[in-house]
Specification:
Methylamine Dehydrogenase, Chain H; four-stranded antiparallel beta sheet; 1 helix
């Protein structure tokens, strides 16, 4: 049996043991998750929608939605799924972060409170490892905002950290454009990608200094006009993968003791459309997927070798403007939020080859941009 076959067999065995191979009345409840979808929508509409999602067959069903959050383009759940934090990606003073409760029995959301980000167009939010803080990346504010979280889950006022500088692209890099927050797998550092200055900022975590030791910040410089966008770690924590918006490249970094060392750069966007978007690793760690927009919209597929480097193995075309995408927790499905197609597209994933097959199933809704899974209670 070759290596890929062993991986596939192991995944199938794990799926069977978890109950994911069952069907009908014998199906385990762990097969079903909630899928939360954030979108570009006015506060008068259901900008965040909740669907049930069956990992056994890829089927979904509308459960609920919530109004009152403008442009909830990115959201993140707490580890237990009881709370959701969603940005309001407004450009002006109304740019905010919202705290919501999530009833995992009923599948319903309720607003707790909101606080201003003090930086325009927040487009990403992450929770600190101890979930005592939420941090947003503010695209037009050129900043990140740190929010203490109270014991009841509500947000306290933000403390913004503002950056300066510009990049080589005179049109797209006139100022800092913070785009992603990643807490490192060892829970020691916060990484913030800045599309506007071709930098990744690294901050040590320090609970005595309101989460971040700003005096010990280090800047990781990337090649001019890279435009770093989203970051994701490997399951074993030894590598970090970056999707670049402007260069359309995936960069592979080794990670060890606060060091990010560039191992490889591989092209995902062969059309050079400057629309690189999101990046994720399959749960088994054997494949990396990256979304590309503006031309030949789709998902680039890479196989991970033993040393963490990548080999491109395929490209799956999708609907228009694929932004955020998500892989189901059992690895069977990859869902793509196609903003301009007004649909979430559902693809079945081959665990042996990493390739995708369109199921034809769609979740129709206006301008979906963010997908998050939360386990049902």
């Amino acid at each position: 049996m070759n290596k890929k076959s062993i991986w596939a067999a192991a995944l199938c065995a794990a799926t069977f043991l978890s109950g994911c191979g069952n069907s009908g009345s014998g199906k385990s409840e762990t097969d079903e998750y909630y899928l939360l979808i954030g979108s570009y929508a006015p506060a008068s509409e259901e900008g965040i929608k909740v669907y049930s999602f069956d990992q056994n067959n890829g089927k979904s069903e509308y459960v609920s939605g919530i109004k009152g959050v403008s442009n909830p383009s990115f959201l993140t759940p707490s580890a237990d799924g009881s709370r959701i934090y969603s940005v309001t990606e407004d450009e002006g003073e109304t740019a905010s972060l919202h705290a919501l409760t999530f009833d995992r029995e009923k599948g319903t959301l309720a607003l707790l409170n909101e606080e201003r980000t003090l930086g325009g167009a927040p487009c990403y939010v992450a929770l600190s490892p101890d979930e005592r803080y939420a941090v947003t990346a503010n695209y037009l504010g050129g900043s990140i905002s740190v929010f203490p979280i109270r014991q009841d889950g509500k947000l306290s006022p933000a403390h913004p950290i503002v950056f300066s500088g510009k990049g080589a692209d005179a049109e797209r890099q006139k100022q800092p454009h913070l785009h992603c927050i990643l807490f490192t797998p060892d829970k020691r550092y916060l990484l913030a990608s800045d599309l506007g200055t071709d930098r990744i900022y690294s901050f040590p975590l320090d609970s005595t200094k309101a989460l971040l030791d700003t005096a010990a910040r280090k800047d990781i410089l990337l090649p001019p006009a890279t435009g770093p966008r989203h970051l994701t770690p490997s399951p074993n924590g030894k590598h970090i993968y970056l999707m670049s918006e402007l260069s359309g490249q995936v960069m592979v970094f080794s990670y060890d003791e606060a060091r990010l060392d560039t191992m490889q750069t591989v092209l995902a966007d062969t059309c050079h459309a400057q629309g690189g978007a999101d990046i994720h690793v399959s749960p088994d760690g054997h494949f990396v997927y990256a979304s590309c927009r503006l031309q030949n919209d789709g998902i680039a597929i890479f196989e991970v070798t033993e040393d963490g480097s990548l080999t491109k193995v395929g490209y799956q075309k999708t609907g228009s403007h694929p932004r955020n995408f998500a892989i189901s927790p059992n690895g069977n499905y990859l869902l793509v939020a196609c903003r301009d197609a007004n649909a979430v597209e559902i693809y079945q994933r081959n665990p042996e080859t990493g390739l995708l097959q369109d199921t034809g199933q769609r979740i129709e809704m206006p301008k979906p941009v963010c997908l998050k899974f939360v386990k049902r209670q």
